[in-house]
Every structure is written in structure tokens, then in C-alpha cells.
Amino acid sequence: MSSDPFYIDRDKLQRLAQSCECAIWLSNSDAELRPDIVRLLGSRIDPAEQTISVFAPLNISAGILRNLHQNQQLSYMMASLATLESFQIKGTYISHETCSEEEVAFQQAYIDGFIAFANRLGFDASPSYGIYFHQPSIKITLSIGEIYEQTPRNGTGKKLEL
Asked: How far apart are the C-alpha atoms of 67 and 31, rounded to whole Å?
């Protein structure tokens, strides 16, 4: 473990990205820098490949997909409901495809876990399933580029090293 305050280890980043305690989003912008953002249904980090695969409902992903024709830069954001620990990963689009049955089951487990976790914290997250869980969904894969601290505290916005 590094003593550098602007360091995050890969295991922690991977654990947070794949946990049900985090709310997660993907965003990009069009050629005029107008943003699109999508609330995700789960994500997986592949540290060996330095990629993130994210799962998004197709019915609300049209803007993100359209923007990829003009701008392949993507921003992935995760924030812990429990600690407010937050990170942004900037990366480049690699691919997208329709989700497999296994990936849909992963999404269902994520949203079920997210609701249960939020409810334990005292939030009524029961409407989340109907609001966020829509099928079909797509898997978007992006490279891991720069990582930034976004937790509300001193150091917010600083670039982190892995």
C-alpha cells in the first residue's frame, strides 16, 4: 500500500465498482459538449485488461450510443451510499453489445443488492427496481484511463495513481 494520499489500490477500486453499495453512472458528450448520463445496472472491472464493462438499459442509452460516433471518450462514476467515497474513471470506448442472460442476471443481482443496501441505510429504495431495471440492456466496454478522487473532502478532483 502506498503512503501517497492520491493512490488507490486495484483491489479496492474493483471491489467498489462491483459492489451493491455504489451508485454508478456512465456519461459522455456530443460534439458540442452537451452531456448524456445513464444510471447503470452494474459494472465489472477487468484489471488484467485495464477495462470496465458497464451495463445500461437500452431504452435510456440512445444519447450515449449516438455520441460515440463523434466522441469516444467516456466517464464512469461510482459513489458509495454508505461513505460517499466517490471515484471517476475517464476512458475510451472499446465496444458495445447486447447483454447475455448471465449479464442480465448479474444486473438483477446488482439492483436487488443496491435496494437492500439502501434500505438498510434508511432510504426507501423499493421504487428503484421499476425505475432503473429495464431490458433489453447493453454492455459497454471502455478502457481505464485516468482515475480521479471525487469524494467530498480535501483532495477532491485530484488524479489518482494505481
From this structure: 8
Beta strand 35-39 pairing with 146-149: unpaired
* Distances 43 to 1, 56, 126 between C-alpha atoms, Å: 25, 9, 21
CA atoms of 142 and 154, how far apart (whole Å): 29
Question: pLDDT of 27-48, one tens digit each?
Answer: 999 999 999 999 999 999 988 8
151: CB partners within 8 A, 6+ apart? 83, 84, 85, 86, 87
pTM of the model: 0.90
The strand pairing partners of 73, in sequence order, are: 92
In whole angstroms, what is the distance from residue 96 CA to residue 98 CA?
A: 7
Contacts (Cβ under 8 Å, ≥6 apart) of 40: 24, 25, 26, 54, 55, 56
Kindly state the cell numbers that stand for 36.
448524456
